Amino acid sequence: MRQITEKITRAFERRESLSIDNSRTDGNSLWLFENRIAEWREDGLWVTNAEWTSQTTKERLNGLTGVNISNKRGVWFLNGREWNGHWVNVSDWSDGIEHAQGVSEEDEFDMSSEWLEDLRCSRPIYSVYHTTKSWNLALFELILGEANILFRRAESDTVGVYKPNYFLVVHAVDYDRAKEILNQNK
Q1: Domain boundaries, the chain
Q2: Which end of the chain has fewer CB atoms surrounding its CB within 10 Å, N or C?
Q3: Contact status, residue 138 vs residue 129, Cβ threshold 8 Å
Q4: What are 87-100's pLDDT values in tens digits?
């Protein structure tokens, strides 16, 4: 761990103000390049990658007690669970939100699909949102993240002119709730 990470995260955890190079804390929040990446709330420590999957962001977050971020093939994991980088309560996350929803950490996303003739592509059965522009997924990922619903992006097979179709897939137990939440926000 670099010295800057150690100093800034210790000050944050002691709830002290400190500014070093590209990082600062007022004791309540931790910023990296003016992006808030951690904060204390009434219910504990919350973290986000602020949509930056950089080594520096990962290092700063890993400097916090109770936070262990790794990545595998571009996918980030927080305390051993796949993480989309959106705000999450570290203590709830560590205790396993999925267990409360009836899904164990070992469960994989069901990526079985059905063919949609009108779109000329396959759609994952537990897809709760579809678009042909990947950037359209961000808002709905944020909404699902705030609702503590885990999801995975999927890209479908297509026939004919290449027009990728992007989907957000959730666990089967979260499907109805996720659809309801997203329909309220469309």
Answers
A1: 3-99, 113-184
A2: C
A3: no
A4: 988 877 643 333 33
Q: How far is it, in rounded angstroms, from Cα 4 to Cα 108?
A: 37
What pTM did the predictor assign? Answer: 0.53
Show the tokens assigned to 30.
């931790």
Among the four given CATH numbers 3.30.70, 2.150.10, 3.40.960, 3.40.30, the one describing domain 113-184 = 3.30.70
**CA distances to 13, 14, 25, 53, 159 from 17, in Å:** 10, 9, 5, 25, 56
With a cut of 70, which residues of the chain have pLDDT below it? 1, 93-107, 119, 157-163, 186
DSSP assignments along 101-123, one per residue: TT--TTPPP---EEEETTTTEEE
Torsion of the alpha carbons at 168, 170, 175 and 178, rounded to the nearest 10: -60
Q: Are 172 and 133 in contact (CB under 8 A)?
A: no
CA distances from 93 to 80, 111, 146 (A): 10, 24, 13
Q: Determine the Cα angle at 43 with ends 39 and 48, to 5°.
A: 35
- Spatial distance between the Cα atoms of 84 and 75, rounded to a whole number of angstroms: 8
List all residues 6 or more positions away from 146 whose beta carbon is below 8 Å from its beta carbon.
Answer: 86, 87
